[in-house]
């Protein structure tokens, strides 16, 4: 095994968006570059962990040292996460689609001049809450993310309780052309005990390295 603060540990990370098909050429997605999740996976591998990165469709290179599993939809992501267990740490950085079209059409929906049919949606599974709530094989450290545009801290406090994770990383994504897709991030760390820590704006790579140090200290 590689030396480092996470030597001998298993870590899974979700990253990127999900694509929820409407028909063969269209999908619903969230805005996510995958940069923060990929940076965490790279940092965990550099810290000696055995890393599985479960990634939705992204346009960035695979992080060095991690096993990468590519998925499309939220349901595929949940399946891949469950297949990667057990792990010591699970980090849910993906921007998972909350809803998917109730029915993915097998043929392209034609534009025929009449009013388009409304798109019926159904809820996707909450991957983070599902894994945090497991009785068997629950990772010792379950980490969630919260991308918020307003009331960042209040929403984070509500979210950590509702999702059942041990640590929540909240970021303000309200700035135009800021965090989403960018190279930098400013985050707040919220613990289950209510402890709050705000970090300065940092490169996503540096956020990844500091988070990994924190995970090692919490195990
Ligand atoms: O509820 P919200 O989407 O803001 O929660 C964000 C956190 O939950 C992130 O850690 C995200 O990866 C995770 N999540 C998930 N499955 C979903 C929705 C969100 O794992 N269906």
TrEMBL record:
Binds 1 FMN per subunit. It comes from the Bacteria. Pathway: Cofactor biosynthesis; coenzyme A biosynthesis; CoA from (R)-pantothenate: step 3/5; Cofactor biosynthesis; coenzyme A biosynthesis; CoA from (R)-pantothenate: step 2/5. Residues 6-217 form the DNA/pantothenate metabolism flavoprotein C-terminal domain. It catalyses: N-[(R)-4-phosphopantothenoyl]-L-cysteine + H(+) = (R)-4'-phosphopantetheine + CO2; (R)-4'-phosphopantothenate + L-cysteine + CTP = N-[(R)-4-phosphopantothenoyl]-L-cysteine + CMP + diphosphate + H(+). Keywords: Decarboxylase, Flavoprotein, FMN, Ligase, Lyase, Magnesium, Metal-binding, Multifunctional enzyme. Its EC number is 4.1.1.36, 6.3.2.5. Residues 11-219 are annotated as: Phosphopantothenate--cysteine ligase. Its cofactor is Mg(2+); FMN. CTP binds at residues 98, 108, 125-128, 145, 159, 163. Catalyzes two steps in the biosynthesis of coenzyme A. In the first step cysteine is conjugated to 4'-phosphopantothenate to form 4-phosphopantothenoylcysteine, in the latter compound is decarboxylated to form 4'-phosphopantotheine. Catalyzes two sequential steps in the biosynthesis of coenzyme A. In the first step cysteine is conjugated to 4'-phosphopantothenate to form 4-phosphopantothenoylcysteine. In the second step the latter compound is decarboxylated to form 4'-phosphopantotheine. In the C-terminal section; belongs to the PPC synthetase family. This is Coenzyme A biosynthesis bifunctional protein CoaBC. It comes from Methylobacterium iners.
